[in-house]
């Protein structure tokens, strides 16, 4: 094998010649330890963004997927990056606003609020405004310069006064949902939009009094998208249309396009008073004409739009979630782009979503908005294929790569020979987060395990006929549970459940189940709870009459269940949760919270084969085996090749 950019993975454990067992985890470490993995450079590169703010001719952007996040300054006139600085911690920033020439950024998974001085590059942590694992979802600046933030999981509104330096919690705005998702402010009120139940909470800036101004007759389930508060009106995007309300919620109008639209995820009012909006994924650009939305163009299709601003006389600037800034001339219809992924100072190693190995062809790595094609044995540089979201799961099939995307729930087919991406359809049925794909070659079916959107419990097993394109969705196949994994064996699909569903709602069951689904009759043969009280299963696999599984809640619990008796014959602990794979008649598990690799056997503690490694996964760790004992994975966000030969074990 020809190695490209091969580097030795150094850690204290490797230097000591042995791999330690994670404290509190029962396991057996290899006697001498395996060789350090071969490393081949960044597995995936990203410049994905969510938060962006504009101040005159300058745009300020905060990245996601890079640790810690970067604050990127862009000269919008010359369309060039002029400065890049780092925050102190976090995996990304969802929110950004400008007040008094200072830039304010909110981050996750620690919900920090930062102030950034673009003149000096100085970063100041103003406070942490929620528990670990929380998000600062949105920021806005009121006309007097006061900064407001919306958070999860406590659905709180926070206020920061730059003139006094006081940061204070204005309390929870809704008790039936966790996400204060979007925000706007005028002279007297702050307007907070929630998800996954729609509220628009108007908060009096002087008294703190709160009231819901979302019309009671409209659908509550779903998200409130961007809000604009100006000129004595409140404009709210929700359900692919725009609501025009008075600040007290009265006199509301529904402004809709002639045909149903996807989420309108960006709104702006131009200096001339025109309301413009862009729809997610389709890129439809709408203008308000009376009490309707008229499509006037298409911009940056296949992407999210994280904000739009009009500058110059007719140029509309848009922030694409993929890291593409677009400049659309409303007069001529022409569009130019600045791809931040091509900017070396902006782009960086991504947290990995998924991997797949096609023997002799390529290693594929899914990230934010791109699939990266690696062929290190051929001595060629990796290349990227753009896709419309996060590649949560994929598998090679007949020279193509079948993939499943978040957040659209779209199934795609990628031809690496031409870099062509073809849609196979949307999962629909409120399914948003695909977790795993399996191929039933006998019946020509692609099996998709998926989770619902936030606020819902029922996931699905979807069967896609690869010849006809027909989809057969079995929603609620595990009642009141998301479906996180599908393992195929002898015509039976074994499914793993998660009682938390899409999150943001109270579980209805005490424990996660596994189910056996007959692909011939398309019926559930049986369901059972392997271990009582365990709420969320992450992955299952079948080998030699046993069903192996690993739990997310309680994290790190693994089990082996005799399929003949449906009895758990062994239960143990690993570092966290991830995926299980069978290879060469052995069962392996790759798990997070240390990124370890284990061998699993009934009657034995988990045998540690590799780790700890620097965290690399946005989803959960995975392994893809070659023939023999070499396995592809990720270490320190780099594509890695592990030697898991038994000679390295006791």
TrEMBL record:
Q: Does the keyword Signal apply?
A: yes
The source's superkingdom equals Bacteria
**Record InterPro entries:** Kelch-typ_b-propeller, Quino_amine_DH_bsu, TAT_signal, WD40/YVTN_repeat-like_dom_sf
- The answer on whether this UniProt entry bears the keyword Signal reads yes
Q: PROSITE patterns annotated for this entry?
A: TAT
Which keywords does UniProt give here? Signal
Signal peptide residue numbers: 1-31
Q: Quote the protein name from its UniProt record.
A: TAT (Twin-arginine translocation) pathway signal sequence
Protein species of origin: Jiangella alba
